[in-house]
Amino acid sequence: MDLVGIYQCLCDRTRLRILHLLGQGPLCVCHFQKILQEPQVKVSKHLGYLRARGMVRSDRRGNWMIYSLQAKPSRELAANLACLQDCAREDPVFQRDLERLRKLSPGFAESSPCCRAATVHR
Amino acid sequence: MDLVGIYQCLCDRTRLRILHLLGQGPLCVCHFQKILQEPQVKVSKHLGYLRARGMVRSDRRGNWMIYSLQAKPSRELAANLACLQDCAREDPVFQRDLERLRKLSPGFAESSPCCRAATVHR
DNA sequence: TGTCAATATACCCGTAATGGAATATACCTG
DNA sequence: CAGGTATATTCCATTACGGGTATATTGACA
To answer: Does B33 reside within a domain?
Structure first.
């Protein structure tokens, strides 16, 4: 993906919030729904947009799809994602998202059972 | 302008090239036309887009409009413009633009008579 | 196999963006 | 004022985007 493509991914608020959150580690769709408080179809479509452009990858884990940032980002992509994280540090919306993320699944970052903590898993 | 607005400005190839060039200093529309090799209306409209969003400013100098980057960019804007300059260092299109810029008006960076060197100023 | 939960896709609509052709505006100069 | 140059704007067609509703797909599990 070239530089323009990167910026096209970044130029929507929902996608920005998604990418910012993914900076913390992999997340599944239900997490995004809860943190962003946006309808499922909206979250799913933006994730699809990012995946179609190679910005994120998705892995199925049972019923859930786990999204994560591209493993080997280009120099350009890495630089811009770092810039995003930096800019987000002062933005209340991004910070609130981080708060919600921490409340949802403490210590999710490495541990895999993504949706265990967030959903009623009968 | 918020972060999304910044990325919206950056998500078009022509605007990216314009902003990259403006990193070298103020330029007038005719310079952009010659360097980008794009029609006048296209250049002018993208410049208008950037100006409407406060990304660049314009100053009239006789017949010519001199465009320059915003004097006091926000932290976010400054960070992203720096990131752009960094990414452009490896991109042949951006580098070719710089080449053309240098050929057009050597030593323009500080000196003001923007279009003196580039146009036949009878 | 049937049902349920999680996610994705199809379809539709309103809006914005892009680009070109033609025209308008602003300024300079004689 | 007239004519020319530089730039902006208007109009138009095309396309992309964002969001919503409804529906389809996928996998788990009884």
So the answer is: yes
CATH code, domain with A87? 1.10.10.10
Question: Do residues B49 and B82 make contact, with C-beta atoms less than 8 angstroms apart?
Answer: no
Can you give the distance from the CA of residue B12 to the C1' of nucleotide D15 in angstroms?
A: 15
In a domain, A119, yes or no: no
Q: Is the backbone of residue B33 left (phi > 0), alpha (psi -120 to 50) or beta?
A: alpha
Residue B107, CB, strand C, below 7 Å:
no
Determine the residue of chain A that is closest to B2 in CA distance: A91
Q: Which of A4, A75, A90 has its CB closest to that of B11? A: A4
Q: Give the C-alpha separation, B114 to B65, whole Å.
A: 9
Strand, helix or coil at B65? strand
pLDDT digits over B86-97, tens only?
Answer: 999 999 999 999
Number of domains in chain B: 1
d(CA B39, CA B63): 18
Each residue's pLDDT expressed in tens, for chain A with a length of 122 residues: 899 999 999 999 999 999 999 999 999 999 999 999 999 999 999 999 999 999 999 999 999 999 999 999 999 999 999 999 999 999 999 999 999 999 886 544 333 445 554 433 22
In a domain, A117, yes or no: no
Nearest CB to A11: which of B7, B16, B87?
B7
Is B111 inside a domain boundary? no
Is the distance between the Cβ of B8 and the closest atom of strand D smaller than 7 Å?
no
Å separating the CA of residue B29 from the C1' of nucleotide D15: 27
Inspect the interface and report whether the beta carbons of A11 and B8 lie closer than 8 Å: yes
